[in-house]
Amino acid sequence: ADAVVMWGLNFYLGGKVMNARNECGVKLPLMYENKDDSKFNCVQRSHMNYVENSSFALSLLFSGGLCAPRVSAAAGAVYIVGKVLYAQGYSTGNPSMRSKGNIAYLGLFTLVGTSIYSALKIGQLV
DSSP string of 15-68? Predict the structure, then answer.
């Protein structure tokens, strides 16, 4: 279920970028607005941060879930909540508000642990 929610979150954040594009008048193909104080840039960066990190999170979710499915699912949920909080905070236009999403790291590092555990268990080292 976490993987499906992560897929949906990507589309949700992409939609927020398109809405911000319309509100701020930033035309495609520009990735960023050429202003220091830009709400659009904050919305765009929140989405790009998610895109940049989701492949790692999904890989860890799948590999950790092989031998620790419940812990991995819970960690994935924490990661998702953290990324939603990150995007909500960053999208305010005040980049310092993104720190509300730091809880995502708790989920991500737990997924690293479950992935290591799965590797060791599959390799019959534990």
Answer: HHHHHHHHHHT--TT-SS-S-SS-HHHHHHHHHHHHHHHHHHHHHHHHHHHTT-
Of 120, 105, 12, 108, which Cα lies nearest the Cα of 61?
108
Q: Give per-residue pLDDT as tens, 30-81.
A: 999 988 788 999 999 999 999 999 999 999 999 999 999 999 999 999 999 9
Q: Measure the CA–CA gap between 110 and 18, rounded to whole angstroms.
A: 33
Q: How far is CA 111 from CA 44, 69, 84, 107, 126, in A?
A: 26, 10, 18, 6, 18
**Measured distance CA(17)–CA(20) in Å, rounded:** 5
Cβ atoms < 10 Å from Cβ of 61:
24
**pTM for this predicted structure:** 0.92
Task: Tell me if 49 sits within 8 A of 105, measured CB to CB.
Answer: no
Q: Name the DSSP letter for residue 95.
A: G
Given a contact cutoff of 8 angstroms between Cβ atoms, the answer to whether 77 and 2 are in contact is: yes
